[in-house]
Design goal:
The structure is a homotrimer of 428-residue chains.
Chain A lengths: L13 H4 L22 H5 L6 E2 L8 E3 L2 E16 L2 E8 L8 E4 L3 E8 L8 E3 L23 E7 L4 E6 L4 H6 L4 E6 L10 E10 L18 E4 L10 E4 L3 E8 L5 E5 L4 E6 L2 E2 L7 E2 L1 E4 L4 E7 L4 E7 L22 H10 L14 H8 L17 E2 L2 E2 L6 E7 L22 E2 L2
Parallel strand pairs in A: 1-11, 3-6, 5-10, 11-14, 13-24
Antiparallel strand pairs in A: 2-3, 3-4, 6-8, 7-9, 9-10, 11-12, 14-20, 15-19, 15-21, 16-17, 16-18, 16-20, 21-24, 22-23
Chain lengths: 428, 428, 428
Amino acid sequence: MQRRTFLSSFAGSMAALSALPAAHAAERVAVNTPSGKPSGMVAKEGHTPVVTLNGQSLDWTVKDGVKEFRLTAEPIEQEVAPGMKAKFWGYNGGSPGPTIEAVEGDKIRIFVTNKLPEHTTIHWHGLLLPNGMDGVGGLNQPQIPPGKTCVYEFTLSKSGTFMYHPHADEQVQMALGMMGLFIVHPRNPNERRVDRDYAFLLAAYDIEPDTMTAKTSTMTDFNLWTFNSRTFPAIQTLVARQGERVRIRVGNLTMTNHPIHLHGHTFKVSGTDGGWIPPAAQWPEVTTDIAVGQMRVIEFIADAPGDWAFHCHKSHHTMGPMGHSGPNMLGVDQKKLSHHLEQLLPGKHYMAMGSTGMAEMQNMASMNEMMPLPANTLPMMTGTGPYGPIEMGGMFTVLKVRPDLAHGDYQDPRWYKQPKGSQAWIMD
Amino acid sequence: MQRRTFLSSFAGSMAALSALPAAHAAERVAVNTPSGKPSGMVAKEGHTPVVTLNGQSLDWTVKDGVKEFRLTAEPIEQEVAPGMKAKFWGYNGGSPGPTIEAVEGDKIRIFVTNKLPEHTTIHWHGLLLPNGMDGVGGLNQPQIPPGKTCVYEFTLSKSGTFMYHPHADEQVQMALGMMGLFIVHPRNPNERRVDRDYAFLLAAYDIEPDTMTAKTSTMTDFNLWTFNSRTFPAIQTLVARQGERVRIRVGNLTMTNHPIHLHGHTFKVSGTDGGWIPPAAQWPEVTTDIAVGQMRVIEFIADAPGDWAFHCHKSHHTMGPMGHSGPNMLGVDQKKLSHHLEQLLPGKHYMAMGSTGMAEMQNMASMNEMMPLPANTLPMMTGTGPYGPIEMGGMFTVLKVRPDLAHGDYQDPRWYKQPKGSQAWIMD
Amino acid sequence: MQRRTFLSSFAGSMAALSALPAAHAAERVAVNTPSGKPSGMVAKEGHTPVVTLNGQSLDWTVKDGVKEFRLTAEPIEQEVAPGMKAKFWGYNGGSPGPTIEAVEGDKIRIFVTNKLPEHTTIHWHGLLLPNGMDGVGGLNQPQIPPGKTCVYEFTLSKSGTFMYHPHADEQVQMALGMMGLFIVHPRNPNERRVDRDYAFLLAAYDIEPDTMTAKTSTMTDFNLWTFNSRTFPAIQTLVARQGERVRIRVGNLTMTNHPIHLHGHTFKVSGTDGGWIPPAAQWPEVTTDIAVGQMRVIEFIADAPGDWAFHCHKSHHTMGPMGHSGPNMLGVDQKKLSHHLEQLLPGKHYMAMGSTGMAEMQNMASMNEMMPLPANTLPMMTGTGPYGPIEMGGMFTVLKVRPDLAHGDYQDPRWYKQPKGSQAWIMD
């Protein structure tokens, strides 16, 4: 098949067409996103450490019995997906920032250095602390000017699942990726113990094709829906040994609810950013709706071996950055249109698209006959599985349950081999 | 009153104006939507069968102890409301497809034939099954090519309220109506027994005036908000005898939350797509918010006789396809504008609208002095009750509770006759 | 600093620029919003009265053992924030209308007089009552024509948290502010007793700069996000004595979910518009997501002294009326653009904005060097605290907990004085 030019939105944006130099295709080669690893420091204290998807927990030093953490707010550049980089504002070089992981009862001190071009603060979402440590700029403290370091100090009065984010120029700073997880383990490591403990934040961005910086005025029409500021397939796989108890902690800092759906298992919501939910009050679910500024902790026994989809159930949130407007091409014969466009754009080939649905596009992608895309944008649907394109991107990843994983082994075990007779089959 | 031309969106779309041939009024005559009936096959096994609003359950055949079901994915044409037809993709001739109704412990086999112009799969949402039967194209199985039949086979390990939908080119295929209910009754017919058991799915479409096919790239700005791909008054009435225990199962496959609100009764959410909620964990509600990819089962005693509104509480979701942009006419004297428009469009009369609110429009509609509408669109608000226009369309229907219905009688009992002295009255 | 003209939306609306006469700045002087006070009539019956933010409860008269209330639906004009007035439709001169506060078992009669230019009704959301009193125009009763009075009469069968709003031309009438709270106290004043009981409704409006009337066709892109039709800092402060049990009742009549977030405290959701939630079924939360047409009652012990932010967690909902589209200025050097614009608009100065974030704007505002805004609009972020601009507006207010408040004292105690050593500090 020869390479063909296509339009970046479903029905085609004429404006984007002229911005499609074939050379950019080469940029989308390597997936170079980091894989999250458990914190050795928390493990040493006896706790099952959290694995932050594509991220890490922050190391601390101890001074006079106080655990000291260091965060630097700063502009960063980060790979969101293979071939697509974004300019974010983050902490310690990443968005989200490193996960703060500590233990109930700990006295902690956090040094926040502001290397942004404007002032900032940090609010410790869900934590109970003195009013002056709550981090709402103007209300609880003066803003932290650029170049300065602010010191927060408090005692972790309860275990749970929390976040940190600015409470200063919030709409801008959160829209650019400033956020992080804050996990407090119970003092007793056997309390609420699980075998695997994953965590991530939901973030949405609006980055136009050919640009790298999110628009901060966008209220609903985002085009990058992410787990920890990455889109599938750049999002790390979750793994578990069959029979293990798995916890997944999710916080939402976008502008809309995200119904997070797990295949193959029923889970319970065991906690929120307000605390742990008594077992008698828990509901069985396969989809938990996480509102903005909410966190949900889900728990389940990974008893079903296989590769299970785990994603936001809003179908547009598992897609790449397609346009949400434009005419409807379904059922339209585009042969004449292609001819017309090729007249207008000599040397380009217009790929008629969407006249029978979108699956034709995904197949081409899967065959690695990738078409040139606008510079710094995403293929429409990017994941590829053992049976071809998965046709999902964005807020999507896979839970891989295997009978034979070692405890603490978080390596991606590749694709599941379906046992004979256990898979849907296509009749001749 | 003479017939007058009006504009299809609240404030008026000039573009639409030229597309208003008076002849189209005649198209909006008959409501010809099917009324859902209970399945005889499930009743024969002793269960209270589900009534799918405007739909049916799928008959099965038994082969070697396995219940065999047959689904055909195919393009269809369906009446969404009186006078408005849409081209959907559905199953077995309808959208949603037929409800699969079976019993806990059943071994089932489902033959899925693909008559779409592109490949597809089916995911059995909420069901616990072997990984290879989970239906995520590319991840769990190869796609089903057009013209082929795929066989799924599994055992129903638990009772509950589930769905089926494609996990292939999802954004397109669900946006076109591909979805269905999957109800599993408890093995023991007396477990969790109710007297009436209704079910439907929430679907939203974006079909522009004068077109019949939904735009699949729309992310938020839909104009058709439906129960089972119909809008009120084409949505079937729910009926119950006073004192009966009623269950309503609702699943959401749109792109936003729908807060489903029942009048006259307090209900409890007794189940989700993850299972049954223990009574001690249930909350009393009059509105349950159903997130995307979630199902909610509500139960209540129908103890209050009367005609009770039952609808999504987002006010735009109980409206017909009005535009959501355009200037604000409230308080504007449109006489001069009318004159101006009539100059531009000789032979047409422009109806000034919205200057005192929208109720004036609804009254005209109620008097059957219907105005010509753009071809294949909906009146703005369509339901008419015993006291004039109900001024609601879209995701709206009525629960009719009567003291004297026979068990198993699902016929619409017409309007409630208010007992003397029990109705609000207007003073002279 | 000299006064400079700036653009009303983040990235600048050229159209708005010409509409910025400096004289309008003077309009934004006084905050003249009423402060809600507890009802003496309910207090006299032994109940902890509700404090409606910026509102009041409706007095009643008794006739033959029936409490009689009077509501007038009418167009009103109301200050939404300092310097910004809106034309709403409300009840008894305000939006929301007065809170109806009564007691379980009460027989009540409500006279609803329609002074709107179109018909209306009132639906008593969540209350259990005879079908003819339910207020759905066309279904349960004829509409109330302009100029007429309708009489509703029923007995309050249970205590709880309810609302009233029209069920007639709903999309228009609710979009213009027609709503009110309806609180029913338990018959026994010691049942579920709290020390402070606050209540408000969430409402959203779309009022374009230089206009005063909300667009009623807007479905998602609102620009005024309010508590009781006011934006911060026009929203009343919530106060509590340290150790008191506080209840806050919130209902949502917008078009989207609002995750209401409280700082410094963990709360439980103790009730809905369907009733009271048994303690064993309650979840600990710091953010409760309130769906449209839902009410949530939260309760907590105000045990942490200080000034605690209390707000919707969607970052755009704590902002003033900024545009949500337009180009992205972040990182753009606007010096040349300013020069160019000033050429086009002699006598005006264009303020380059947003190139380092938005905080620069807020500081200017805080120094009272206010820039001229488009007539009848809001500063982008308006609240100012003890340490400078809070950078939040819209759905935002402050809970002030003090050790030394008198019972029943609802006066704003000014800003919290942080105890030495308890506040984040900026290093030299």
